[in-house]
Amino acid sequence: MKQFLIALALTSTSVYAAPPVDFDTRVEALRNAVGVPGVGIAIVEKGQTVLAKGYGVKRLGGNDPVTPHTLFATGSTGKAVTAAALATLVDQGKIDWDDKVIDRLPGFQMWDSWVTREMTIRDLLVHRSGLGLGAGDLLFVPRSNLSRAEAVRRLRYIKPATSFRSDYAYDNILYMVAGQLIETVTGQTWEAYVKDDVFKVAGMTDSVSDDPDRFANPDRAQPHARMNGGLRGAGDQEVLDERDGLARNAAPAGGLAVSPVDMGKWLALQLAQGKLPSGGQLYGSAQAQQMWRPATLMPIAPKPPELALTQPKFLSYALGWHVQDYRGAKILQHGGAVFGFQTMVVLMPEQDVGFAVEINSEDGELVQGLVYELLDHYLGLPSQDWPARFRAFKAKRVADGLAAFKAKGAASAKSNPSLPLARYAGTYRDAWYGDVTVAVSGKGKTARLTLDFTRTPRLKGPLEVFGPDVFRTRFPVGWGEDAVVTFEVKDGKVAGMKLVAYSPLADFSFDYQDLDLRKI
Known about the structure:
This protein has 520 residues and is α+β, with helices and mostly antiparallel strands. 30% of the residues lie in helices and 22% in strands. Helix 3 crosses helix 9. It is globular, with a radius of gyration of 24 Å. The termini are far apart.
């Protein structure tokens, strides 16, 4: 009889109800052990929020606690919200998922004219356009002074990495296009449409789609990161300037701020396939199925032995969601990371369970560890102490990165430039990014070069000699990843320059390598 009951439990849709016993104690212990200032967690079971809570503080060194209504920047988890906004327009008959973008957004243009004609609204959301990983991200990371419309216009100058619909490569810029399309179709900005026609309808009264609304709310978490340990991700936790993260032009790709309470409402809405507690619908079940339907197969990278159980057998991208398996169970999930924040949202449709973990730092090992503990809990699987495993994995990655970082510096024999500094000075132009300027500051022995990404105000700083015709940027700490700059010199003249990120752990959004800067 005992074996029968165990077998029955393992085949039920949800083995456990309610969060794990002593979950609050567990979260607090992990938060303190990892050094995360604040955490927000929401858990939904069978349409009901069973947990919406804050842990820790909004700002390091302060005593203002995280509350259930504290706003956290949620990064790319907002892609699903942009998809939901489009779903409401499909239900209204204003667009269709397979409409050609050019028919709904006049002036839209990709590098290839055939792709321009064939690109659909669905294609904007599923990372199969042919663009390379993170293509064009320097148009908004870190904060740019470009408008959304101008950033979208520059898309036509970004060369593809593969043929159309042939491969998966994550991008953000096409979600910017989706935001611009919403504005064109509705006459409202993406921010206004999400606020009025998604958040307000869904009862998500804390959540904001625009920075002024976030900064006006005192109940918001502040961003933090580790900056003084040799590379980003190592060292002591410190507070970042909240106004210098993601540019607003890219908000449709990940510019929302959501509280634990509102995360609970969002999870319940998703699991109910668009049905509202009031009985109405934000979007219909047909659109819910469209948004969850796999569209692009994703490569499955091998996991290290300690994380092998987390490796899916199936992984795909739908409309703003990853669809995959975890130890035989279907899950939908999406992570989000912006300067000083990380979030992960998970849906378990077969168990009718959803949960989200938000933090105001960049210590993703806490987020991942708690996510997999909750997955195991709701599947009735033995505890694996996933936080410890992810912490060990992160520690090794950072240690390896620091070793490579130091080796790169040691291997770069410093010498004098081959040309007088004034010969490197000038304006360098890339078709999609625009202008980058190099100038000489100081005189005599104090003279040095400075580099200025003119459309990215925080990417500005001195260059230090790193080898013949090679320099390293020294951007202000916290604003961006440093780059190695190699000037192309031929017959005593500088023709252009190439850049690559200096840190081996640099985020893919610092896509310096995609720039082709020609001196003009």
